[in-house]
Amino acid sequence: MKRIVSILLICVLMLGMVSCKINKEEIHVIWSDLDDQYLATIADAVDRAMYIKNIRYRHVDSEGSAEKQLEQVDDALAGGAGIVVVSAVDAATSALIVDKAQAKDAYVVFLCCDIMETVVMAYEKSIYINVDPASLVEILGDRIVTDVLENYIAYDRNGDGEISYLPIGVSDELAGCVQYVNDKLKAADRSALVLHEAVLDTSDIHAVFSEYNDENKKTPELLLVADDDRVESVLLDLRRDDMNFNYTKLKTHFIPMYTVGIAAAAGNLIADKGEEERAAYSVMNTIDNGFVSAAALEDDDELALALCTVLSNIVKEKDLFDKVNEEYLKDNKIFVPYTIYG
Amino acid sequence: MAKQVQLDENGKRKFGILDSVSYAAGDFGCNMSFALKSTLIIFWTQFMRMDSALYALLLLVVQAWDAINDPLIGSIIDADKRQYKRNKFLTYIWFGSIGLIVGGALCFVPLPDIKDWAKIVLFVAGYVVWDAFYTVANVPYGSLLSLISSKPADRASLSAWRSVGSMVGNMVPMVILPILIYDENDNIVGWRVFLAALIMGIMGFIAFQFMIRNTEIRESTEITVSEEAPKVNVLKAFANFIKNRPAVGATIAAMGMFLGMQGGTAAVTVLFQSYFKNVQISGVVQVFAMLPIVLFTPFARNMVTKYGKKELSVFGSLCSIVACILMLVIRITPDTKGIVIYVLCQLLNSLGIGIYSTVSWSMMGDAIDYNEWKFGAREEGTVYSLHSFFRKLSQGLGPSLVLIIMAALGYSEYHAGNQLFSVALNLRYLVAALYLLSAVMQFVGLGIVYNLDKKTLEQMNTELAARHSTEESTSNVVE
């Protein structure tokens, strides 16, 4: 009897050990908050890329809660996940997640989020994939230069030989972009962009534009909006009262506008439409409709592809960065350049 | 020195290649507006942003009008007893061709920001006007064949060249349109569709003028375009139709084609927009998939003679079933490899469907003969009109039902060519399922219900010939 019980206990123990074995093919993706439109588009691209690569995975939404996210990481690791992909709720959370993954000898991939870099990168099985913020300057800058050179006369509304720009929102990247554009314009023997007025609060836009009249043509001639969340309010302000800027596809009353990102909601611009249509209307639609010139955005497909390549390498026990575009690799991190929409 | 025109025994231009080519030009002209029909759903839901359920309902309404429109205009043409300088049918075709210059474009007026009620009016009015002009041109065009020549060989040539005109009129827009009307983000661009419709209307007009100028009317027989409508008991006619197994079988097969394949046109477009993310190659892929049937057609006659229509069609439906099952179970990924697999499946599927479509109308002819063989009366008009009714019913129901299913699977017109991947994946399976439905209905209709195999068909034709011979000699004796 004792012998039978012992054998049974050993079997149970072995079964338990097998179930606790880290399964590299068990992949969990934990999104910080899928209500965030930007993350939702990344998630969709990841879904697609994973399907193409035939990588099975589970995914959960932390709904913006760091505490919930840590619990989800615990659950994933306890369930035997060998790889955890996380868009961390915040940088502090990333450090805690690394500790948990390290304890279980699991891989952790941080995707499109802020991280506590020193902690995260100290763990050899930690990988970081994000958009390359430095690329914004060149990607968006090249597009602005091309448009300005092709449409200089149209953009120069007051005909003074200069194009004045209005930055909406503070952004180091946009400041760098302006410098980049001005260098290129100078090389093309054109006047640099001239700062019209710095606007920190979007409610000031109407005040700026209400100074405009046909005589003084005192209007910014190019708008640089720091992020797509502000685009809706900027367009609403441009259309207020009798200003009617960027209201139709006709270019007679159009101020070229450039921004970063396309996923932000813009449903208030079509307030007379149905609920479903308004819910689906975003900055992307404003670009499609010609109200906004272009936007720099994260290359979802390339980010997803980079992720899938890394996951595939982990499962097949290859070098982590095998077949990853070399131009994306910087200090063992993967940075995917921005792309342009519009 | 100008080439002398050869004349026949009646002083008319001798039948030749010019007759065939000009007749083909007529079908090309018709297809210059008809080819755009498959773009209606995507234009009205994604660009005009009409609610999918509302569009499905309106589509049913205009299809119902379509069913009324044909006999209505047919009877107007028949009732017109005026003498025309050239020919009544050519005159109506000319009139229809003028309307079609803008008729097609009226269905694609790019005003997405107007009120919802205005969109409803615009859609219905545009479709009705287009449909009217199309019918005015198309109905007499079909009847024109019997006025060009009475000789069977000439009519066979006209019929074959009509198919060529139809094929060219379909294939050219099928390949070129997706490249022109979608932007780099796979979104449909409304004004481009409108412009394409106008250009195609002009091309159609030119083709019609070529046809009209080069058509030689050799027969003066009074032809009616609308079906004679004797007083019939509808219930009795339907009861007789149900007893006619070949007619029912051929009708089930045709309904399958309209419900599944043609109904799924919108799903296929969204498949290329959001799944493969390359809508501009959709036309090329579809044309490529038609290659097997193009290669098969020259051999159709000999193969039918050797194997029989039913046998050949059933073989075709089995090919389609296999192709569709493969389409369902094989991993068709949203990349180049996936497109290749999709195309290969479609090659096999289209061969199956194509075999059926080459013999479908002659199978209905055999069904008419069956009626006479079994029940003593041909009831041609009733059988054809009920067959046409069910075809049109499916033609109307198919796209509407599929659109409702697409919405249930998560399709949102407001996301246009950027549907979520999960939705795109659902539609990938829907497309395969719709093609499978078509293939299964074809198999059921032709393999199980349709009972005129080669042997039975020979027996029927022999007995009918003997019966007709007896009736003829009896009537000669009476005279």
Characteristics:
heterodimer; A: 342 residues; alpha/beta; seven-stranded mixed sheet; elongated; B: 479 residues; mainly alpha; globular
Structure description:
The complex is a heterodimer of chains A (342) and B (479). Chain A has helices at 2-20, 37-52, 66-78, 91-103, 117-122, 135-150, 152-155, 172-187, 205-210, 231-238, 275-280, 283-288, 300-315, and strands at 23-31, 58-61, 81-86, 107-111, 126-131, 163-168, 193-195, 222-225, 257-260, 294-298, 329-330, 333-336, 338-341. Chain A has 342 residues and is α/β, with parallel strands linked by helices. In chain A, strands 2-1-3-4-5-12-11 form a seven-stranded mixed sheet, with helices on both faces. With 479 residues, chain B is mostly helical. Chain B is built from 17 helices and no strands. The termini of chain B are far apart. Classes of the chains: A alpha/beta (342), B mainly alpha (479).
Topology:
The complex is a heterodimer of chains A (342) and B (479).
Chain A: H1 2-20, E1 23-31, H2 37-52, E2 58-61, H3 66-78, E3 81-86, H4 91-103, E4 107-111, H5 117-122, E5 126-131, H6 135-150, H7 152-155, E6 163-168, H8 172-187, E7 193-195, H9 205-210, E8 222-225, H10 231-238, E9 257-260, H11 275-280, H12 283-288, E10 294-298, H13 300-315, E11 329-330, E12 333-336, E13 338-341
Chain B: H1 17-34, H2 40-47, H3 52-79, H4 88-103, H5 116-148, H6 152-181, H7 190-214, H8 234-243, H9 245-262, H10 265-275, H11 282-289, H12 291-307, H13 309-329, H14 336-375, H15 380-408, H16 421-449, H17 454-478
